[in-house]
Design goal:
3 helices; 88% helix; 128 residues; mainly alpha
Length: 128
């Protein structure tokens, strides 16, 4: 009878440690997921801002190209100013486009969480 009493606290202590470890791991993964969710939200907002910049610069570029073509045949003094502004907005459009592309192709979402879950599965899969 005393043997059963001696082993019971050890079993309960082991079960409590296992449960505590599982809960700590789950908490860690949920916290990592929350951080990655916040990063993903910031990345999406940045991509939307870059897309808005591309659209705005593109519209201004088209407007200035139109004005440049109209004025090309009008007087000679206004052409260099409009051509300079057209080049400046073209550069802005190209930079905004590149920023948008780099934001969209930077990385996949939730890579940290996925990698940690893969490590967890690998640890559980091996015979330790």
């Amino acid at each position: 009878m005393s043997e059963a009493t001696d082993t019971k606290p050890g079993i309960w202590a082991s079960l409590k440690r296992i449960l505590d470890t599982l809960l700590a791991t789950a908490q860690n993964r949920v916290e990592l997921f929350a951080v990655e969710m916040q990063e993903e939200k910031c990345r999406v907002v940045e991509a939307m801002l870059c897309a808005a910049a591309v659209a705005a610069f593109g519209m201004m570029k088209l407007t200035l190209v139109t004005f440049t073509i109209v004025i090309l045949f009008w007087e000679n003094g206004r052409l260099p100013a409009l051509a300079g502004l057209s080049v400046l907005l073209l550069v802005g459009t190209a930079l905004a486009w590149r920023a948008l592309q780099s934001r969209l192709q930077a990385r996949s979402a939730f890579t940290g969480t996925i990698e940690e879950l893969k490590k967890d599965r690998a640890c559980l899969g091996t015979d330790n």
